[in-house]
Amino acid sequence: MTDYYNLIDKRTEYTIKKMEDKADDLNRRLDLIEKEKPDEWFKIDDIDSYYTQRMDLLQKQVELYQDALKDTSDMTDEQIQNIVDSLNEATLSLKQAQIDNLKDQTDLQSKQYDAIVYRINLWKDEIQDAIDAIEDAYEDEIKPIQDVSDELERQGKLEDLLAAKKAAQREKERVFREGIGWVTKVRP
Fold first, then answer.
1. Is residue 6 part of a domain?
2. Do 62 and 91 form a contact (C-beta atoms < 8 A)?
3. DSSP tag of 40
4. Is the Cα torsion angle 65, 69, 73, 78 positive or negative in sign?
5. Which of 25, 82, 120, 148 has the greatest count of CB atoms below 10 A from its CB?
6. pLDDT less than 50: residues of the chain
7. For 19-62, what is each residue's pLDDT tens digit?
8. Quick check: is 87 in a domain?
């Protein structure tokens, strides 16, 4: 009977060793992916690609530990607890990768938005400078014309006043009255 228990123990150890080897392989692959992660993202597709690979490997780890927990009849409590702990760790890592993916995408989109707003403001300033230059040039051309126009208008008013004065003088005549002297009389 001890040979049977030894055989079961060896089979369990082999199964656990095989699972640990697969987990180690997945961890090595995760480390390689992590080393390739850039310090700064430039495209959403790059973020998606990185996190898709990472989450796929983490999902495989979760499935590996879940499969190992399907048949725990020959495992010790410590072995089961180690697998459960590893499953919890892999699950948390998977959820954290999903959060990091969204955070990195949000950060990149925010940077892209800020860059677009900055560029638009530069263009707006350039356009406003061009408009100001056009307005200044327009005013420089209009000013002498406006001065001439104002002078012509002033001359027109003076001519109107002169004509009114002449008309008023034609309607009046100077008459000498005794005791008063020269007076202006309006013609009927």
1. yes
2. yes
3. S
4. positive
5. 82
6. none
7. 888 888 888 888 887 888 777 767 778 888 888 888 888 898 99
8. yes
